[in-house]
Please model this.
Amino acid sequence: FDKPPDIGKSLIINIRPESIQISSVASTKAPEANQIQGKVVNSLYLGSLVQYEVEIASGLRIRVNSPNPRRLPLLQREGPVILTFSPHDAILLHQDIGNQSRLFQTGGQT
Model:
């Protein structure tokens, strides 16, 4: 894109699964990071990872793959969580999308 998106515009972005973290507490490690609050609506233990489905305030559900959970407690269903990612890891795919609903794939854990 030739110019940055306008403030307040709806966008489609892509974030690589390994570039997003999920935690039950807000991160203070990277103050410039984007943080989105949500709640766990579903989880699936897959051995080497846990796949969480997180619903954010807009109703959008985001799928998060959290690797190697063996030493971390599992996040509880309906429990509040924070999704964190660097602005540099968000790739703008499309601007001005309107009110379409989507399920995005994301991943990682703090």
Summary: DSSP finds no helices and eight strands in the chain. The two ends are 32 Å apart (CA to CA).
